Amino acid sequence: MIQPANSEVSGAHGPTRQELKGEAIEFVKMIVWFLILFAILRGCVMEGYEVEGDSMLPTLADRERILVFKLPHNLSRINLFSEIKALEEGDIVVFNGKESALEKRYLKRVIARGPTKRHNTVEAKQHADGDLPNDAVLVEFDRGVVYVNNRRIQEDYLPSMDYAPDEHDAVELGPGQYYVMGDNRPVSKDSRSFGPVEDDALIGRAVFRFWPPSRIGLLK
Fold it and tell me: What is the 3-state secondary structure (H, E, C) of 10-31?
């Protein structure tokens, strides 16, 4: 049996040029799909970050690396999943700062979140008369102690710190607003200085520390 002179066959001499070309194309397709999948995961599901500064000590230290889970918060922005409560009080979150031109991002802990619905007409009138609406969230910081709607919250993750006797802050949270603070309160720039964080500025919840190896573990 013979083959035409212009045909290419594989055998003892290895794969043909056509086969090598096909394998190269398949390899390129695999790389492209991998990059697309990676971009989707990084943009919508999970992303790694490096901690900068000491504002979250002792929970997180400078140069430690963490994973931030984005998916629940991204889903909560869609009407179909709007009932999802993606972020809870006590969660550590990453969010965009108000200095948008600098693309600066912050890492803080959620102390309180505002109401999830708009005030109705009666509540709005009560608020205008000086009374808090039924679903209002009032946050007060007084010499290291935090109160949410006059209830002191327990923060077992905090180290012992000294505060100035006149250090005080009070703010009422509106719908879609979060009051955030660093665990290292004396050095942290947080809602005490730049006010509440809007929902659309939030990126996701820090869930896992993967560097350094000696500190690998879930974040609380």
Answer: CECCECCHHHHHHHHHHHHHHH
Question: Quick check: is 204 in a domain?
Answer: yes
What CATH code is carried by the domain that includes residue 125? Answer: 2.10.109.10
How does residue 19 score in pLDDT terms, banded at 50, 70 and 90?
Answer: confident
* Distance of alpha carbon 137 from alpha carbon 7, whole angstroms: 79
- Cα–Cα separations (whole angstroms), residue 78 to 74, 174, 177: 7, 20, 17
Query: CA–CA separation, 204 vs 16, rounded Å?
Result: 50
- Check if the beta carbon of residue 139 is closer than 8 Å to that of residue 171: yes
Residue 195: alpha-carbon gap to chain centroid = 18
**Is 14 inside any structural domain?**
no
**Residue (of 177, 173, 96, 117) closest to 140 by Cα position:** 173
Domain assignment of residue 2, yes or no: no
How far apart CA 121 and CA 112 sit, in angstroms, is: 24
Q: In terms of residue numbers, what domain contains 144?
A: 38-218
93-113 pLDDT, tens digit each: 999 987 655 568 999 999 999
Count CB neighbours of 65 within 10 A. Answer: 16
Give the chain's domain count: 1
How many Å apart are CA 107 and CA 50, to the nearest integer?
10
Residue 158 forms part of a structural domain: yes
pLDDT at 45: 78
